[in-house]
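quick q for whoever's on today - can somebody do inverse folding on this one?? i tried earlier but teh output was garbage lol. tokens:
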């Protein structure tokens, strides 16, 4: 089981850089980088909500489940 993070794809589609998005959603650029690279072990719903609001997307556009078995 793998959860893939497609945040970088959505950011590219919306033409927004990491620093700008981090500032708009109220987290550090470093924490956003951890999310983008898939190294985060969890994400707060409030953070996911803010990301989706600012990128005008759905959680499923950012998070993808893959059954690797």
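ok took a stab at it. sequence:
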């Amino acid at each position: 089981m793998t959860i893939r993070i497609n945040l970088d794809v959505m950011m590219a589609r919306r033409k927004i850089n990491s620093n700008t998005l981090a500032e708009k959603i109220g987290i550090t650029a470093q924490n956003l980088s951890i999310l983008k690279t898939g190294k985060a072990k969890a994400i707060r719903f409030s953070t996911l909500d803010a990301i989706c609001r600012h990128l005008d997307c759905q959680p499923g556009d950012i998070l993808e489940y893959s059954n690797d078995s």
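fwiw The beta strands are 2-5, 63-66. also The mean pLDDT is 94. so keep that in mind when u check it
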